[in-house]
Design brief:
The protein is of the alpha/beta class. Strand 1 (about 1-5), helix 1 (about 10-20) and strand 2 form a beta-alpha-beta unit. Helix content is about 35%, strand content about 10%.
């Protein structure tokens, strides 16, 4: 079962569909750092399948560099990552590159989620033109061109909840019409990542499409029997670090695994802990973090910005985004949504342990997104990737959610 991954990002679709037994034909992504992340993950899968996991472990430990890691992987696997922006200017180049790859015939499924700022409620609120005229509003048309070119049996189109309401539903109606004219029926699902076992409140639209000549129906995507785990389980085996601490390669775990980490496949046998790195914070921010943690711990109250002492208020905006400082509460069953803004600051993702007094690390953010610990997020340069990693994680789709969706679609494709 073969798939093409559009707007691939850091590889949430890659991880989910690989786990479900699909084989990628190509991953198309504009961010060069994310492309390195995809290549590194494909390297992991190739080396593991060929009983050479020790080479990947050497890389995680910093014993070999990225080029040395890639030298052990066939070129056609690395070439399946295509670093080009999807659009009229480059589509013919992307098609040519895909056609040169193995397995391009009979693509079963196309997956991907175009950049979502144009449909995001927050994005529209922050933009003075409410994203009107933003070219990202029309990336679904580019998605449609890939459907027309490769005629997969199915497709999965992921986006934010705001897609259904943007311009009073105009964009979704246009999407449905566009895909319908190509020969695909569509069905949208409103899902929350926590329905799939992800410890995060992450609401999304998943549009499932299928060729109209196929006898296909699907009633639900989410497993209704997901066990309940508290957020604390993603923190409890990690070593304590302070703001600005952690190393870019590897640490050792503070304790053994737990039920959730096994269930979500976050710890899966490679006990090499990487990217448990926290950003540095100012004295003022750390004082605010302590107030936020204590409010939650003792009163179960969230910090409202205007309630801070005057000497700690430095933002001019005192009307909106008053919850800009927020604890990742470890006694809840899901955290707040992890978004790309985490690359700019960590105020919305304060670690619940007041002794550590920091925002969450790269690895903790990845765990909230259900990425396994052996998943390495690359930067343009080795060793300088904290901001890039946060951005990739915030933009990603949770692999655990995608794996469950892929498994549902696999059942149909195997019939």
């Amino acid at each position: 079962m073969k798939y093409i991954d559009l707007f691939a990002g850091a590889g949430g679709f890659l991880e989910g569909f690989k786990r479900a037994g699909f084989e990628p034909v190509a991953h198309v992504e504009v961010d060069p750092a994310a492309c390195f992340t995809l290549k590194t993950r494909l390297s992991y899968y190739y080396l593991t399948a060929n009983k050479k996991t020790d080479i990947y472990i050497q890389y995680l430990k910093g014993e070999i560099n990225r080029n040395q890691l890639y030298s052990h992987v066939p070129g056609h696997i690395l070439d399946s990552v295509i670093n080009l922006p999807i659009g009229n200017k480059n589509n013919h180049k992307i098609f040519d590159k895909i056609n040169e790859l193995k397995g391009v015939n009979d693509v079963d499924i196309i997956v991907g989620g175009p950049p979502c700022q144009a449909y995001s409620l927050v994005g529209r609120a922050r933009d003075k033109n409410r994203m009107a005229g933003d070219p990202r509003n029309y990336l679904y048309l580019q998605y449609g061109k890939f459907l027309k070119k490769y005629r997969p049996k199915l497709f999965v189109f992921e986006n934010v909840i705001g897609l259904l309401s943007a311009e009073k539903g105009k964009y979704f109606r246009n999407i449905k019409s566009c895909f319908g004219s190509i020969g695909y029926a569509v069905k949208p699902f409103q899902v929350n990542a926590n329905q799939f076992g992800v410890l995060q409140n992450r609401k999304r639209i998943i549009i499932i499409g299928w060729r109209k000549d196929l006898d296909f129906s699907i009633e639900q995507l989410a497993d209704q029997t997901i066990p309940s785990f508290q957020v604390r389980l993603i923190f409890e085996d990690l070593p304590e670090i302070q703001a600005g601490q952690g190393v870019n390669k590897f640490l050792t775990y503070a304790k053994g695994t737990n039920d959730y980490l096994c269930y979500a496949k976050i710890r899966n046998g490679i006990d090499v802990l990487t990217q448990h790195i926290s950003r540095p914070h100012s004295i003022q921010d750390k004082e605010i973090y302590k107030i936020a943690v204590n409010k939650w711990k003792y009163n179960r109250e969230r910090l409202v910005y205007n309630d801070l002492p005057e000497h700690l208020k430095s933002h001019n905006n005192k009307i909106s985004f008053l919850d800009r400082f927020k604890v990742v509460a470890d006694d809840l069953f899901s955290s707040q949504t992890v978004v790309a803004h985490i690359a700019k600051d960590g105020h919305y993702y304060i670690h619940p342990d007041i002794k550590q007094n920091r925002s969450i690390s790269v690895r903790e953010a990845a765990r909230l997104q259900s990425f396994p610990d052996d998943y390495y997020f690359e930067g343009m340069k080795e060793g300088h990737n904290r901001t890039s990693a946060f951005k990739q994680i915030g933009n990603a789709v949770p692999p655990l959610m995608i794996e469950n969706i892929a498994a549902s679609l696999k059942y149909f494709l195997l019939q």
